[in-house]
Amino acid sequence: MNKINIPISVLDLVPVREGQDAHDAFVRARELAKHVDDLGYTRYWLAEHHNSRSIASSATAVAIGYIAEATKQIRVGSGGVMLPNHVPLVVAEQFGTLNAMYPGRIDLGLGRAPGTDPFTARALRRNIAGEDFEENVVELQHYLGEAKETDSVRAYPGFGEQIPIWILGSSMFSAELSARRGLPYAFASHFAPDYFTRAIKLYREQFKPSEYCEKPYVLACINAIVADTDEEAHYLATSFYQFFLSIIRRDHQLLKPPVKNMDEIWSPFERDAVMQQRQYTFIGSKETVAKELQAFVEENSVDEVMISSSIYDDEARKYSFTCLRDMFA
Questions:
Q1: In which element (H, E) is residue 306 found?
Q2: What are the Luciferase-like domain coordinates in residue numbering (predicted)?
Q3: How many helices (H) and strands (E) does the chain have?
Q4: Structural domain for 149, as ranges
């Protein structure tokens, strides 16, 4: 089978593993980042979440610096910064600082959701509904690329640095905004697959070229777990299922080791709820996943694939990413 000739990247939620703490989770993230950097992955993005003891990446800009310091060439960024939680000037300064430290290696992905529950969103003291999201995106673009020396407010560092901005989303709104602003579009198909095909179709149809992006660029984030056999991969995937089940139950359980029988853990309703969200989840042997991934890329004509992978064991996770990289040119 021919190799897939598009970039492959990584999304890391920095999950906290059962029996460990946030420090251990960041050490694991750093080791994985170094591994995929050596393999030639394109990006390593970290996601902003709040009020969840199972995810350690709440201070996303800080985590990006930690990963960038440990790597050599891979682009490190946010997948994403949840803009309703932040003042655009502060985001511009944070990412301007990161880009000054690691020139040409920083990406800024922006999301409209708060990345948490309504109570925590209120505690963050920002616009919970995200109604001014586009206005804030434009303001952020101004600080990073369009500001003038005569402006009374400028971002230092960040002024004029043109740090790549991406719009992240899982809806038609994000597709329309990405197209209207001429920005690359990253779709969260790893947890919200329902609108994927409609959203990227609309994005391509309505895209307006800009100084940031000459033509549409679609990054699809998916889940993938690869092992030597289908059976082993599906066994490893039970950690992913338990992680997703914890989200459904809202009990924020830490990443758990794999189990032999998920039916002893979830109800039929919970099983259906988890499986409904795994339309773009690829689990199996190298041969199985390579075939399915190639079909996915060809069918949707995506420009880049980003992998999220909730595997409990460090070596098994590294091996899965090694196998995935081998599928790409």
A1: strand 304-308
A2: 16-298
A3: 11, 9
A4: 8-326
